[in-house]
Amino acid sequence: MKRNTVIIADDDADDRYLIGEALNIVGQRRKILEVEDGRELVDLLANDNPNPELILVDMNMPRMNGVEVLDAIQAFAGYGDVPKIVLSNDSQNAQKAYQAGADGFYTKPVTLDGYLDVARRILKKYLGGEPPKPLI
Which residues carry this modification: 4-aspartylphosphate (predicted)? Predict the structure, then answer.
C-alpha cells in the first residue's frame, strides 16, 4: 500500500495548519492527519493503522510530550521505517529528540516563509522529492 499520509501532532492549531499547508504547497498534495496531543497520536497509531509516510511531532504537548511519543512509537511494529520529525520552539531540545529516536529536528519557524523553507527541506530529505519548479 502506497503511503501518502503525513501525521502532524501539535497542540497549536495554527502550527498544525501552517506546516500542513506548507508541505502541500511545496510538494505533491498529501493527506494530512492532525492530532492535538501526543496521547491522541499514540492512540491513532495503535488503533487506526493510518500507514503514514511521515510523522511530525511537537516537542511540547499536553498529556504526552515529543520524547514520550517517540518512546511509545518505538514499541509499535510497522513504524520503524517511518521518518519521525520533531518540531520545537527551542533548539536546545534537539539532542533530547534525537536520543528518543527522532530522525530529524527543526526549530519551529515564526513566518510563513519559514514554514515553507522547513517544508522544502522535509520534502527533499524525507519524502523523496524536489519541490516543483514555479511556473514563470
Answer: 58
The whole-angstrom separation of Cα 94 and Cα 84 is 13
Query: How far are the Cα atoms of 22, 57, 59, 70, 97 from residue 11, in angstroms, in the given order?
Result: 18, 10, 10, 16, 17
**What residue spans define the domains of the chain?**
5-126
Reported as a single tens digit per residue, the pLDDT across 49-101 is 788 999 999 999 999 999 999 999 988 878 888 999 999 999 999 999 999 99
Superfamily of domain 5-126 in the CATH hierarchy:
Response regulator (3.40.50.2300)
